Amino acid sequence: MKDKDFLMIPGPTPVPESVLLAMAKHPMGHRSSEFSKVVRRVEEGLKWVFQTKYDVQIYTSSGTGAMESAISNLVNAGDKVLSLIIGNFGARWAKIAAMRGADVQKLEVPYGKAINPDELKKILDADTKKEIKVVTLTHNETSTGVTNPVKELAKIIREHGAISVVDGITSIGAIDCKMDEWGIDVLISGSQKGFMIPPGLAFLVANDRAWELHKQCKYPSFYFNWDDYKKNLDKDTTPWTPAVNLFIALDKALEMMREEGLENIFARHKNNAMLLRKGIKDMGLKLFVEDESIASYAITSVLPPEGINVPDIRKTLKEDYNIVVANGQNDLKDKIFRMGTLGFVTERDVLTALASLKATIDKLKK
Ligand SMILES: *Cc1c(COP(=O)(O)O)cnc(C)c1O
Fold first, then answer.
1. What is the band of 223 on the pLDDT scale with cuts at 50, 70, 90?
2. 3 — pLDDT class (breaks 50, 70, 90)
3. How far away, in angstroms, is 118 Cα from ligand 1 center?
4. Which atom of ligand 1 sits closest to the CA of residue 202?
5. What is the number of other CB atoms lying within 10 angstroms of the CB of residue 127?
6. The overall pTM is greater than 0.70
7. Which residue ranges have their beta carbon within 6 Å of ligand 1?
């Protein structure tokens, strides 16, 4: 049967029917007063989700666009950037910074692990001349299913004085991240993960400290120019034509998120991930991230059982049960599969996925 797909990949994620219906309209004129009202509402909603008082810049791009924006509005060629890498997405920050001509230093740990705050502190303490301007990191590493201790890491970065630039693409709206309270300087996210809407919008928040560093940036990006975004946001608009229908979708999704409440959203993600982890272990399968203290509430990485390969598991789940799970990335390709519990996901979905996974394994064992 068609139209029954359940996306359990870590983005794009399932979209609620009310959001799909809200989007299914002719586009609004993006300079209309009607659209400005949407921009204002969405802006206020995003601030609430990001737990910040600072402006949220809304880009028409995928999440990587917001990463590019952060680096290109903060970093000059030759600047020292420290990238904390626990997986593919952490490595992406280092690549973007290197393309900008930055002098990139890396703190890399084996995939499946998180950054140890003591190791970061050692590196930053050694930088007595304060040459490191920016530290990039990932809150929730989607490629492995590990959540970094961002609160501790941001504190250490603040004590050193560098600007912390955090990828919250799969944490915002899923896992608690208190931008202002924890002292995160730049925080980004994307629409197709915890926000329950299709891909196409990315978000960036910069605090006062980040704006100070931005003033020293000689050649910022044109499309992602912070000053242009700020100037326009003050008038409830955007510099370029935005994906207006996605704004309408976001407006609706934020309304749903407000109804549920942030604490309940975080609790739901935690409960769903714990239920999934328990079910997988009960089935006799192994989790890639065994340490509960760093295991993600948004993405769970699973090792295939002996004698059964990842492509067959994914194929059977898709063909027999219309459930789409993700493969591992790069070195982890065919070694793990990843199940997202991100966004519009309930306990029923997790139970269905567990039963389907069990039936899949039983079928493939024969
Ligand atoms: C999905 C994702 C990205 C990249 O987002 P795109 O929308 O594909 O550009 C970056 N970081 C993390 C942690 C992600 O999960």
1. very high
2. confident
3. 27
4. 7
5. 15
6. yes
7. 10-11, 62-64, 89, 138, 142, 167, 169-170, 190, 199
